[in-house]
Amino acid sequence: MTPFDGFLADSDAVAAAMVARDGTILEANRALERLLGSTASIHEIVVPAHGPVVTDLLAEAGPSWHSVQAGLVRRSGDMVDCKVWALAQDKGVLMLAEPLRAPGEKLNALLLELNSDLLGARRELAAKNRRLRELDELKSMFLASATHDLKTPLTSILGFAELLGEEGLSPEARRMALTIENSAHRVLTMINDLLGAAQIMTGELRLERSQTDLVASVRGALEAIQPAAWASRVTISRHGPDSAVAFVDERRVLQTLDNLLSNAVKYSRHGGHVDVTCEVRGPNIAIAVEDTGIGIPIEEHQQLFGRYFRASTAIELGIVGTGLGLANARSFAEAHGGSLECISEPGVGSTFTLVLPQGSVDS
Amino acid sequence: MTKNLNVLVVDDSDDLRDLICMVIDRHPGGWKVVATAADGRQAIDVARASQPDVVLLDISMPVMDGMQALPLIREAAPEALVVMLSGYPVATAGQGALNAGAHGYLEKSDLVKTLIPRLERILNAPSLVRR
Predict the structure, then answer these.
(1) Whole-angstrom Cα distance, residue A283 to residue A47?
(2) Which of A94, A259, A320, B15 has the fewest CB atoms within 10 Å distance of its CB?
(3) Do B87 and A155 touch (CB under 8 A)?
(4) What is the pLDDT of residues A192-239, one digit of tens each?
(5) ipTM score of the complex?
(6) Which of A300, A256, A292, A299 shows the shortest CA–CA distance to A275?
(7) Which Pfam family, giving just one, matches this sequence (chain A) (predicted)?
(8) Cβ contact (<8 Å) for B19 and A151?
(9) What's the DSSP call for residue B91?
(10) Which residue of A156, A206, A251 is in closest CB contact with B19?
(11) Is A148 on the interface with B (CB under 8 A)?
């Protein structure tokens, strides 16, 4: 019983034949007949140039497999390069023919495979991109409506707290109303930070510029921070010209000033002081907010403007925050062609400087 | 300062409606809230009945929102100035409202301090045709 009697006889993949030492084909399987056609002798299907090698292979066939490379002639008349194997058996020599692919053919086959892989990957990528865009849109819509819904009751709280503060109440009650106003204002700031961050991340940030008096903006921001400053016993002073006009998005600038002042007060110890200085520096206007607060360690300065980053000094003291305010503020500043930088020393204080180009209507 | 204005306040939030009413009633020039409504459909009927000088119209409301109600309110009370109110900033939705026929657009923030001054500014805008 030879392998030939078993699977080889019926194989469609491996061309095999039982060959006599003189080359006569005693038995051939289906695969061989399909590949090379019916033939009486091995010599008829070997390319003449390779005849001798195959003859030698046959003659020297022994108990272990040996092989040579030879061209075999196909039924169709064309030549197929093969590795020809021979193993001595009782009946004769078992020979196998393994078609070799030409190097060029191998490369072609590989390229075809890679190409179809690539097409598949591209389709998958396109589908995933579509899904991502859908999710992104959903997220934006959700964020917009969530913040809108959150702001409504907050506006109500803030409004009534303000009205309450104006009623003839005891000093104790007035202080409570002020605290309510403070906290509500902080939540409103956090919501605005979230919405701002979402807009920046999805590239929806669009500046609405107009000629704005930055000194008036600073005055407005200072007025808004008064309740919080009062509650923390922090005094605030302002220096600089009476007006300084720049072509900026007033709303975003106010948001930035709110953020800087809110930080200055938040991170200041009781009895501390915040100083706001405006000055014209060539084509730019610089607004510096200096506090005598807990400061930021030097090794954290680089990360300070990163999204969600909160300084260790802040976390240690359990001060609440989203970590988005400074990231947004810097994005707004840079969108104007300006900058936001920080100098700080732990235990001494921090100075944040916002620089905005004065710009012109044509810029 | 414009005196003795009759105002219609339309907003689906009870609290904000109350707040706006309180702020307006404090106005030294005798502004008065003559009517309120909680959705666009209600607003049209109330506007027709009360014929106010100013309508403060919230945008996002159930049943019928402010933008849909706007032309119908203007039809019901042609002499009224309609100012849209919204939680969204001017930059986002302001121009759309103006294009649709509103006389002004206010963002619902810092109402106690700024509602009246901003309304005064809209009332005194040079683009408004005086009756």
Answers:
(1) 87
(2) A320
(3) yes
(4) 888 777 777 767 777 878 888 999 999 988 988 887 888 889 999 999
(5) 0.83
(6) A292
(7) HisKA
(8) no
(9) H
(10) A156
(11) yes
Contact criterion met (CB < 8 Å) for A153 and B15: yes
Strands (E), A75-234: 79-88, 93-99, 210-213
- Could you state, in order of their start, the residue ranges of all structural domains in chain B? 6-115
Quickly list DSSP for A197-223. Answer: HHHHHTT------EEEEHHHHHHHHHH
Q: Report yes or no on whether pTM surpasses 0.80.
A: no
Tokens 């204080």 label which residue? A349
Report the distance separating Cα A347 and Cα B55, nearest Å. Answer: 54
* d(C-alpha A320, C-alpha A317), whole Å: 9
Instruction: Give me the domains of chain A, ranges plus CATH numbers.
Output: 3-100 (3.30.450.20), 206-363 (3.30.565.10)
**Assigned CATH for B6-115:** 3.40.50.2300
Which chain B residues have a beta carbon less than 8 Å from that of A151? 87, 108-109
CB atoms within 10 A of CB A7: 12
CA distance A190 to A178: 19
Nearest chain B alpha carbon to A150: B87
pLDDT tens across A130-176, in order?
999 888 778 777 877 777 788 889 999 999 998 998 888 898 898 88
